[in-house]
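Structure record:
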Amino acid sequence: MYPLIRMTKEFWVHRNAPPLGILDTHVSHHICWPWDLDIWLELNNGRSLTLYDLGRIPLARRTGLVAALRANRWGLTMAGASVRWRRRTRVFERFEMRSRCVGWDHRFMYIEQTMWGGSEAKSSVVYRAAVTGPGGIVPTATVIAALPRPAAAPVLPAYVRAWIAADAERPWPPPR
């Protein structure tokens, strides 16, 4: 089940947090609960992707993206992800999540999120996000211009550019 209560908590906790620029980092703190576990008693890989919503959506609210989506009747969809898991997260373990947009191209925004246990990185994901409207994908230049603090597009990090290039090599649709 989707963690609606936890999402509500995140909105409440960060309700008075100052606005962020599109390239700033949102920091949040979480606990791995028993219902987040897999059969090996660690944070389930699918659940970790769901928990990343707890950082990404408040980030979108603090940058003004949620308001722009609502004002223009746009939607936000994840169009790809590259994930790394490196350290286990066990039941009742606390972790910090850092969420930030690392840049965009003409169609997609790239959002990097990390989970930390103290000074140790546990996992990291880079999402490719698309803003959609009635006509399909909304150009990111249009989306960025709709934000309260628009910014110039930064050069995407090399690892993001390499992922984009590698993903372009995958056949679509995939073979059956």
